[in-house]
Please model this.
Amino acid sequence: MSFQDLGLIQPILRAVSEQGYTTPTPIQQQAIPVVLAGHDLLAAAQTGTGKTAGFTLPLLQRLSGGQPARNAKGRTIPRALILTPTRELAAQVHENLAAYGRHLKLSSMTMYGGVGMQPQINALERGVDIVVATPGRLLDHQSQGNLDLSAVQMLVLDEADRMLDMGFVHDMRRIVALLPRQRQNLLFSATFSDDIRRLAGDFLREPKEVSVAPRNSTAELVEQIVFPVDRERKRELLVNLIQTRNWQQTLVFTRTKHGANRLAEQLERDGLKATGFHGNKTQSARLRALADFKNGKLQVLVATDIAARGIDIDQLPVVVNYELPNIPEDYVHRIGRTGRAGAEGQAISLVCVDELGFLRDIERLVRKPITQQIIAGFEPDPNAKAQPIVMGRTVLHGGEDSRRPGRGGAARQQPARAKPEGRSARAGNAGNGGQAGRPRQGKPQPGTPPESRADSWKSTPWAELDLPPHLRRGQGNGRRPSSGGQGRSQGGRSDFGSGGRRQGGGQRDR
Ligand code: AMP
Model:
């Protein structure tokens, strides 16, 4: 199938071919005709599948076929609104609009926080057809009377799952309430969680559903490997891997902004060109880091989940989970940074005994065991005991036996007031949707003071886990009988290499 077959008009076909695209990706093949026909769309597609062109191309075409909308002063007001969770993603969507719409007479702008309001006000005053916005800043403009949304005919919620994770649900609802009822709605999400389906039920009208990846599956082209390692030796192993495998462009994930900074500084001391990439950095620092990373000046980008959400780098060869995410869905998002648009990629996870529970949750979500390899010289201590993971004032219990029976597969954590990145920090984490392991704000859970929790979690040495043969230190070394993993309602024990015993996926700590 070619782009011509999708019914796109000549100026768009020209722009697409100038981008060097010859064949539409599967999401484009499915989504473009649906959007051109005016239907609402619910699309499951991860970043890297070409989803942005999947909605921007038909959106541009539909708008170019109509007349500009004007307010009483004759100023062009937006006919399309694209909401994204992050500034980076907004900037990228906007770049795509500019590239694909270069032979059309449509204007677009970005509207996100962290930069001055005035240039955005000026752009609105000049007149604009398409606004690409993060929810918070859009509402700021709206409340100041800068923005007229009365002519919006197309609404796109891009990476809606992440907007929910970041606590934007109320903002999204407020924004939708400001729009004309008669409009076309497109919702893109990496996965169709129950929360996404609920949102779609509220916002979309008889949507056509398209999906390019089965629910929560990981990119086929991504080779996933776990390197078991002791917690104190992760950095050494990372440096070793980068140097011995000659990785020139490595995206490394940590759980926290502070962790990202610290690791980047340490890597610099180890002689690598590295920098942290997270929400505490200014927008210009982030864009500079991204540009340096893309053009090869920077070898390692150490990112947090949220900041990395919008990173679009073609054929990123390797992604490293320096720390496994406590939210399994984040793993899927992270590794979606590699193996993009048909290229092969590697997703490496450095996993210590504290994180085995997280690994189980991830394997349950992706519905397959992840291959484990021990790097010679970095064999983990078979008697190492899991420790709680401290993230500011949040304490995560990711060690294998740190879960209580009956609590679902998610790693449990102590109540905390950790400040997650993004608007949720301000918005009280609304719309978190009960994500497993997501730091909870505010009050401690009743009856479980920190001391008793600390007392109650038991560590499990590597040797006692259901490890694959190459990881076992001989037979009869204290390994528990494998029934330890069976019949436990939380499925808390991942049985590497025998997916059949895994309990049904996706249990959440609601
Ligand atoms: P996205 O999933 O929208 O973030 O796109 C991922 C990458 O694929 C971007 O770098 C796009 O420029 C690229 N891309 C999108 N559509 C195509 C296509 N049909 N052929 C080749 N590359 C594409």
